[in-house]
Write a structure and sequence with these properties.
alpha+beta, globular, Beta Polymerase, domain 2, about 40% helix
Length: about 130
């Protein structure tokens, strides 16, 4: 039937969506600010979603990333790659399906990657204030 994903792709999409729910819940639990989820399916081979958040300080950015890594590991997604944890200005976590950017507000404003990845594709309901 046209429009129906092959079963293997559907499982992959379901897994990515479930992982996204876990990521968003973890970020909310860590009091991450300005959480934005962007669907990048078909735009990049990097993954299915990109999540961009802010922490209030270097310490908060590092705590958000640490908490997320623990939650990912607890759910069997502990193979994520992490960059920038030492500095706490911009931490990138790559789960394979989801790329998470945790920024200090000034650094996020400078790079403005949400704009680069097209604001119309921000997942509805994931822009939290």
């Amino acid at each position: 039937m046209p429009g129906i994903l092959p079963q293997s792709l559907e499982r992959g999409a379901d897994a990515a969506a479930r992982a996204l729910e876990l990521v968003l819940a973890s970020l909310e639990d860590s009091k991450a600010e300005d959480i934005v989820s962007i669907n990048i399916v078909g735009k990049s081979a990097l993954g299915d979603y990109m999540v961009v958040v802010s922490g209030r300080s270097t310490r908060h950015v590092m705590a958000i990333a640490d908490h997320l890594m623990k939650d990912l590991k607890d759910e069997g997604l502990g193979t994520a790659r992490v960059e920038g944890l030492e500095t706490g200005d911009w931490v990138l976590i790559d789960t394979g399906d989801i790329i998470i950017h945790v920024f200090r507000p000034e650094v996020r404003e400078f790079y403005n990657i949400e704009k680069m990845w097209a604001a119309p594709d921000i997942e509805e309901g994931t822009l939290l204030h």
